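Contributing new records

If you add data, match the layout below exactly. Sequence lines come first and carry their own label; structure lines follow with theirs. Keep one chain per record. Anything else will be rejected by the validation script.
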Amino acid sequence: MPGIGGSDPLSASVLVLNRMFMAVRVINVRRAFTLLYKDLAEVVSIEDGGAYATYDFSTWTEVSQYKKTFEPAEHEWIRTVRLEIAVPRVIRLLGFEKVPRREVRFNRRNIYARDNNRCQYCGRKFPTSELSLDHVIPKSRGGGMTWENVVCACVSCNVRKGGRTPREAGMHLTRKPFKPKSCPTITLRAASPRYRTWKHFLDAAYWNVELRE
């Protein structure tokens, strides 16, 4: 059976909480099931009314059979020889208490996510492979490698701007670049219906969840 929206269940991501139910990272489905099978983690499921319940691996396989019967379209499924198991959206590590970092990593992926893969000059959206990074104030003019001075730019706009400031090139930014308060890649995923349950555990103004796949 296809998952939500016909997507591949193994391509899904799973939000990981520490023992105190604080979001710490995102992992892939295979890694999540390994942790569950080894009893290093438990599934956290959002129930009716917003309350949540926790299940170990054995219990989750039993609950999955109920879900398979009564709400199959609400989940993605991993098939085994004997049964089908619902892909969890959130798991909780049973022996991990470290608090997640609050600093958002300054890297290419987070910049692309912050700018939603849109060139900040022409405003058009591009695949990542067709985007580059541009220093608003050129490095030759003292512009730094900072959140406030680096933006996504398509190749055409980047070439047009060259080593000039936007004003010198007769170009305008679609919005002022900023340092995000939470990890942009996770914020984008949490906005998808596929990961709507993550919002119970993510405070977009506070937590930074590092993506590890």
